[in-house]
Amino acid sequence: MLVVVGVDQLSKAAVRKSIVPGETRSVLPGLQFVDARNEGVAFGFLPGRHVAVSVLVGVALLVLLVYFARNRDKPLIWLPTGMLLGGALGNILDRLRSGSVTDFIKLPLGWPPFNLADTSITLGVLLLLLVIESRE
C-alpha distances in angstroms, 35 versus 10, 102, 104, 108, 119? Predict the structure, then answer.
């Protein structure tokens, strides 16, 4: 969890310091960095609804922690739990600091920008499903 929060916050600070909002920098073919601000949750859903977003995230984290507590003996359950908590906390820190989340990874075909916290959350959900479905 702490690794995810640290890497996420460092990457966002580097982007805010080096890329002007609206500017696009090509990194690799099909991969660009931008400085975009997201006031909602995934893909800009619920923009400007900070209380609703905070409640939604809080409930999701509470459910995750309850699940983790009840299943802490499951092999590797700590990994997706840490990834999900770290990603959520990384984005929460942005919202508390500036009222929006810094997104900077831009893929082709109109995919909305995202950040490392979002990546950690997505991979954490996939790993959690694998852990839940695994046979001990």
Answer: 14, 7, 5, 16, 16
Give me 60's structure tokens. 């999701």
Is 118 a residue of the active site?
Answer: yes
- Residue 51: exposed, middle, or buried by beta-carbon count in 10 A (0-12, 13-18, 19+)? exposed
Whole-model pTM above 0.70? yes
Provide φ and ψ at 101, rounded to 5°.
-105, 135
Kindly report, residue by residue over 39-84, the tens digit of the pLDDT: 766 655 555 566 666 777 788 889 988 988 898 888 899 999 999 9
Task: Please choose, from the candidates 106, 119, 102, the residue with its C-alpha nearest in 3D space to the C-alpha of residue 32.
Answer: 106
Task: Say which of 8, 35, 94, 118 is annotated catalytic.
Answer: 118
Q: Are 37 and 102 spatial neighbours (Cβ–Cβ below 8 Å)? A: yes
Active site residue 35: no
Q: Which of 8, 35, 94, 103 is catalytic?
A: 103
